Amino acid sequence: MSVIVTVIHVIVCFVLIMAVLLQSGKAADLAGAFGGAGSQTVFGPRGAGTILGKITTISAIIFMFTSLGLWILSGKGDKSVVSGETAPPAAATDTQKAPEAAPTTSDAPAQAQQPSQAGQKPPASAPDKQ
Asked: Distance (Å, rounded) from C-alpha 12 to C-alpha 126?
């Protein structure tokens, strides 16, 4: 449905552009602005409606309705901006490790005796005896 309304909208846009560009101006100079040329109308003398004027009016009305229709159709559906995205792997998101607790006095000699190497996990501390 959205495709049909979009095609109609584009065609009406081109018709509206051509109809507006092909029309001649009113050529209202300074005398026409102050009611010159013996006219009793507010906006100056107006000739008979031309076919281009009618095409402009009809295409403008259709343009407004197709614009509103596209706006309404764009709001329908359960589309999300991130619907096709995948979550990053868990290893890539865990870049910093939490700081470890300071060793207690009873654990300090045991940890000092073991060599520490890069990439090696520290030994697990024994559960406290109470």
From this structure: 79
What is the number of structural domains in the chain?
1
CA distance 125 to 111: 9
79 domain residue, yes or no? no
Average confidence (pLDDT) per 10 residues, the chain, 130 residues: 93 95 70 54 62 92 95 79 77 59 58 55 61
Phi, psi of 42 (to 5 degrees): -70, -40
User: 57 lies in which domain range?
Assistant: 1-24+50-73
Q: Is residue 130 one of the residues assigned to a domain?
A: no
Whole-angstrom distance, CA of residue 121 vs CA of residue 113: 15
Burial class for 55, CB neighbours closer than 10 Å (0-12, 13-18, 19+): middle
0.70 cut: is pTM over it?
no
Q: Which two tokens stand for residue 12?
A: 């009406």
